[in-house]
Amino acid sequence: MLTLQDAAANQKLAALQTLWEQKRGERAMPCRGDLSVADLRPWLGNLALIDLDGAGDTFRLCGTNLFARFGGDVTGLRVADLRDEGGRSFRDGIARVRTERLPSIASHTQIIHGEEVVFNELALPLSSGGIVPKVVLFASYPATAKWAG
Predict the structure, then answer these.
(1) How far apart (Å, rounded) are the C-alpha atoms in residues 109 and 116?
(2) Which residue range(s) make up the domain with 58?
(3) Domain tally for the chain?
(4) What is the pTM for the complete model shown?
């Protein structure tokens, strides 16, 4: 059963996916350039951009509200360097987006300061004008009120 925090997180993720769908139009996925900072402002602290560079994929940006999810700022780090269970679930989501070229929704549970925290997450593929994802736009919201920011 969803809590109020779950519903709020899911509404935020649904709104982000709706924006992605609008920007995509008839294409397989939108280009990174289709989404301006102004477009993404409602989600900024909960977003990460991951460059799919084939050499381990790299966090280009990590919003400050994601530090709890990743254990700190991961900007500039390779996705492969995330070694815990949270890293594994994150890598799995990135792999799904890369392979399926579709949005991926997941939940992830981890222990933070002895407390179980559930994160509702959305990964969205972005291209550079073609049908191959070049960037993943990732959003995550904790479903636990204490961690919801």
Answers:
(1) 7
(2) 4-147
(3) 1
(4) 0.90
